Amino acid sequence: MVFSGLQDSPFFLQTIHKITIITIIIIIMMIIICIVIVNNIKGFRNYAAGRCEFNSTDPSDIQYIFASVYNKLELYRFDSKVGKFVGYTEYGVKAAEHLNNNTAWLERFRHLKYTSCVPNINVYYKDILSKSVEPYAMMHTTSSSGSERVLVCSVYGFYPKDITVTWINNHQQITTGVINTEPTADRDWTFQLHSHLEYSPRSGDQISCVVEHISLKEPMVCWTILLYKTSPGQSGLMVSEHEQLYITSQMFNNLQVWD
Fold first, then answer.
1. Residue 28 and residue 61: Cα distance in Å, rounded?
2. Which residues, 6 or more positions from 80, have their beta carbon under 8 angstroms from its beta carbon?
3. Helix axes 90-100, 103-112, angle to 10 degrees
4. In 3D, which of 240, 242, 237, 174 has the Cα closest to residue 203?
5. Eight-class DSSP state of 82
6. Contact between 116 and 109 (Cβ < 8 Å)
7. Tens digits of per-residue pLDDT, 179-217?
């Protein structure tokens, strides 16, 4: 009963109110401090990292680089192609000179290319980099301004990323009106690319979308687009019956222009 009466007293309520305000202030201060700390964290102030750069499994194409960085500024590095440490700041020059004078330490770094890079790169090439996935394509056409049409050749499911998509008209490469997107990654680690060709239909033209990729033994002709006459002096564009077709490298279509 005494405690219940105390709860209803003005002194008790005033004390609770003050404690609540103080608690809120402390929480706000902690949030501000956390925000300041997070905003000032841009990475490690001091770190060192080694990496392997390569174009093939040939040791002559492999480069080992070790770099020491402080506050986003590279102090010095070891490059296997140079064979010694090189400094980039006043401190880095002194550190590089000291390391180069340590014969045992210098020889250790010179051998890292062969102990760290070469064995791992052989594994990467065998299990990952030598793998390839054959692309497939879909073709469709859309309307553009005036009498022009936009032909779209969409290529999917290829790996690795490098690919070449070109447009051919009667065995001649088309270089104007072509826009290719950059290859974008899908969730399965393959890539897709879309090539757009803005074109004014002319009777007798045969336009093909040609795909070249490391997974293909020969260039893939996705589809041959033929123009046909709809009436005297006019032409139409035919892609397929539903203006869309699923294509693989084993498929090739050759229709003819008719009057």
1. 56
2. 62, 63, 64, 65, 109, 110, 112, 113
3. 100
4. 237
5. T
6. no
7. 999 999 999 889 999 999 988 777 778 889 999 999 999
61/47 Cα distance (integer angstroms): 27
Unique residue bearing structure tokens 């060709």: 197
| Cβ neighbours of 197 (radius 10 Å) | 22
Contact 116, 52 (CB under 8 A): yes
Rounded distance between C-alpha atoms, residue 128 and residue 138, angstroms: 27
Instruction: Give the whole-angstrom CA distance, residue 105 versus residue 101.
Output: 9
Identify the structural domains of the chain with CATH numbers, from first to last.
Answer: 46-129 (3.10.320.10), 136-247 (2.60.40.10)
pTM above 0.85, yes or no: no
In this predicted model, what pLDDT tens digit does every residue of 241-256 receive, in sequence order?
Answer: 333 333 333 333 333 3
Q: Dihedrals φ, ψ of 103, to 5°?
A: -60, -45
